[in-house]
Each structure stands twice: as structure tokens, then as C-alpha cells.
Amino acid sequence: MVPPVQVSPLIKFTRYSALLVGMIYGKKRYGIVLMADYLKPIAEEERRIEAEEKKKREELERIAKEIAEASEDSILK
Q1: Could you tell me which of 39, 18, 43 has the C-alpha nearest to residue 30?
Q2: What pTM was computed for the model?
Q3: CA distance 28 to 22
Q4: Ordered alpha helix ranges (H), 1-77
Q5: pLDDT 10s digit of each residue in the chain, 77 long?
């Protein structure tokens, strides 16, 4: 194996500075607390839309059932 190379302190400082800046940016941009606050309204909107779609679907099923029952009644009579 090749022995480790001595890395310049300037390069070390730059690497760790970039790492620290990236961590701070990530925390600010994608923080867990912020993410929960960001996703909550989206989830509420999705639930509202799903509820509306469910109501429409149930109404269409009810109408289809009534039509089917009405056509069965007319065929039998």
C-alpha cells in the first residue's frame, strides 16, 4: 500500500468549510421541522381532493345503480 499523503491545511480548511456550508444550507432548505410545515398543506390539499373525488365517484355509482334498477324494472314489467 502507498503511505498516506500529507494534505495541505488550505485544502483541508476549504473542504470542511464547504461541508459545513452545505450542511447549513441543507438544514435551512430541507430541515425536518421545515419539511413537516411544508408538506402539511400539500397533504391537506390531497386529502380534500380525494374526498371530492370520492363523493363524485359515489354519486356516479348511485346513479348507475338507479339506472340499472330502473332498466331491470322496465324489462320485467
Answers
A1: 39
A2: 0.47
A3: 10
A4: 9-30, 32-76
A5: 888 899 999 999 999 999 999 988 888 877 655 556 667 888 889 999 999 999 999 999 999 999 888 887 666 55
